[in-house]
Structures are given as C-alpha cells and as structure tokens.
Design a protein that fits this description.
It is a single chain. With about 210 residues, this protein is of the alpha/beta class. Helix 5 links the parallel strand 1 and strand 2. About 50% of the residues lie in helices and about 10% in strands. The radius of gyration is 17 Å and the shape is globular. It folds into two domains: about 70 residues, Methionine synthase domain (Methyltransferase, Methionine Synthase (B12-binding Domains), Chain A, domain 1, Orthogonal Bundle), CATH 1.10.1240; about 120 residues, Rossmann fold (3-Layer(aba) Sandwich), CATH 3.40.50. It contains nine helices and five strands; from the N terminus they run H-H-H-H-E-H-E-H-E-H-E-H-E-H. The chain has a five-stranded parallel sheet, sandwiched between helices. It binds cobalamin. The site of cobalamin (B12) has 42 residues, from helix 3, helix 4, helix 5, strand 3 and strand 4.
C-alpha cells in the first residue's frame, strides 16, 4: 500500500519547495521508507502530476524547473555524492541522446547506480551519438544506459547497438529507460533491456555482471 505520508513529499515537490521536500523525504526515511519507495512513489508521481503542464500546447517552464530543482535536492540527499560502496561492480555510461534535454531521470539513475557500487560515466543530456560511442571506446564500460523522454529520440536509440558493434564494442550491453522508451520493447528499441525504473535495472545488471565474471 502507498505510504500516506508520501503525499506531503509530492505536494512539496510540486510547490518547488526544496527545504520542505528534503524534510519530507527525511521524515519518510526515518519512518522506515526505502529510497526506492520515495523515488517511484514520490518523485516520479510528482513529475507525472506535472505532465499536463508540459505539453506542446501548454508549458509552464518556471513551475516545472522549480519542481525539477526540488527533485534534484531530494535525490542528492538520498544518494550523497561520493557515497560509493567499497567494491566497484562495473562501469556504466549514461546519457540522454541528442535532441533530448530531459535529465532528471538520467541523474536519478546515476545516483542509484553510484550508490549501489557501479562506476558511472555521465555523457550528459542532448548527447550526440558519436560522442557516446567515442566515450564508450575510451571508457570500455560494461553497459551503455540511455534515458529517453521524448519519442523523436527513438531512431537514435535504435542506432546505439549497431554503432557500438562497428567499433568492436558488441559485448557492451545497451539499456534503455525513461518515459518515452519504457513503452517500447527491447526488440523495438534494438537494445538488450528496457527498465521500468532506476531500481529495476539493478537486478538485470547484477545478473549480467555475474555472467561476465
Ligand atoms: C520535467 C519535464 C521537462 C523539463 C525537464 C527538466 C530536466 N532537467 O529534465 C523541461 C521543462 C526542461 C522539459 C522540456 C520539454 N519537454 Co518535458 N517533461 C517533463 C515531465 C513533466 C517530467 C519528466 C521527468 O523528469 N520525470 C521524472 C523522472 C524521474 O522520470 P523518468 O525520466 O521516467 O526516470 C525514471 C525512470 O524512468 C528511470 N530511468 C530514466 N531513464 C532511464 C534510463 C535507464 C537506462 C534506466 C535503467 C532507467 C531510467 O529512472 C527514473 C527513476 O526511476 C514529462 C512528463 C512525464 N510524465 O514524463 C514531460 C515530457 C517528457 N516533456 C515533453 C515535451 C514535449 C517537452 C518539450 C518539447 C516541451 C516544449 N514545448 O518545448 C521540451 C523540450 C524537450 C527536449 N527537447 O528534450 C513530453 C514528451 C512527449 C513525447 N513523448 O515526445 C512529456 C511526456 C510531456 C507531455 N505529456 O507532452 N520537460
């Protein structure tokens, strides 16, 4: 059952109230909630509530940016930078591809992966495919994780695996997530795995790293 107190967090995030959002998140943690519950039930729910204000016809930039900033503060508090586990499990490259400037989901993924012992290389948002593949060549990651929030980015996502293959990086897994990508299957996106959430991918990665050892 959804934690009723999570509504307070959602309300604070929607107001863009950073101190209140962090305070509500801490209260939830103190009450025994898992970070996963806060991200999926709180952060994602708040952003879904903003959905109607972020369309091509209607667009309240200030409100959305303030809520985004509050999300970032809550995530930093939940997964402080540098809070890495002693053993690094593997390297993951994360990016939102060219044309897609959404990066809240990507940043959450980064924090979750870092907190769970993965080394993360962030190629940023609006990342050209060439830059992503060049970075993969230099960093030799175990996986490339693409976050996609707008549907026009799908053709680019489909090119990641063949481009990696052309550089001799066919062993690198391609993972996809984010609102626009999770509606498609792995076959449709030409990737190895499509994740429902930043936490869902951990089971897949832990299994896939184990298989590579
Ligand atoms: C916030 C927001 C913005 C912010 C982005 C701020 C930022 N720094 O990211 C701003 C205001 C900049 C923005 C701009 C635009 N936006 Co906007 N935006 C949103 C909104 C409201 C929320 C997105 C979000 O952050 N969700 C919360 C995060 C936490 O969820 P998430 O990304 O899914 O991530 C979670 C999981 O999916 C997972 N995850 C994410 N990625 C990955 C990757 C992997 C590998 C894994 C394992 C997991 C994973 O981790 C997270 C935690 O579990 C959505 C609506 C919606 N419901 O999605 C519209 C939405 C995405 N935007 C939309 C649009 C149209 C735009 C604009 C074009 C609007 C305009 N008129 O200019 C622009 C420009 C976009 C561009 N060129 O990229 C559309 C996209 C439609 C489509 N299907 O193409 C949406 C769906 C709104 C709508 N209903 O029309 N937007």
């Amino acid at each position: 059952m959804t934690n009723p107190r999570i509504k307070n967090l959602i309300a604070a995030l929607l107001k863009g109230d950073c101190p209140e959002s962090v305070a509500q998140s801490r209260k939830l943690i103190e009450g025994g909630a898992a970070p996963e519950e806060i991200v999926v039930g709180g952060v994602e729910a708040a952003m879904t509530a903003l959905d109607s204000k972020c369309t091509l016809e209607q667009f309240n930039l200030l409100e959305i940016m303030l809520a985004g900033r509050a999300v970032t503060e809550v995530m930093k508090d939940l997964f402080p930078d540098g809070e890495k586990l002693p053993s690094v499990k593997g390297k993951i490259l994360v990016a939102s591809l060219e044309g897609d400037i959404h990066d809240l989901g990507k940043n959450i993924l980064k924090m979750v992966l870092t907190g769970k012992g993965y080394a993360v290389v962030d190629c940023g948002k609006d990342c050209p495919l060439e830059k992503l593949i060049d970075t993969a060549g230099m960093e030799q990651p175990a996986a490339v994780a693409v976050s996609g929030l707008i549907t026009p980015v799908i053709p680019l996502v489909r090119q990641v695996r063949p481009q990696l293959g052309q550089r001799g990086l066919a062993r690198v897994k391609v993972l996809a997530g984010g609102a626009a990508l999770k509606q498609s299957s792995a076959a449709q996106l030409n990737v190895d795995y499509v994740a429902e959430s930043a936490f869902d991918i951990l089971h897949y990665l832990d299994g896939s790293m184990e298989a590579q050892r």
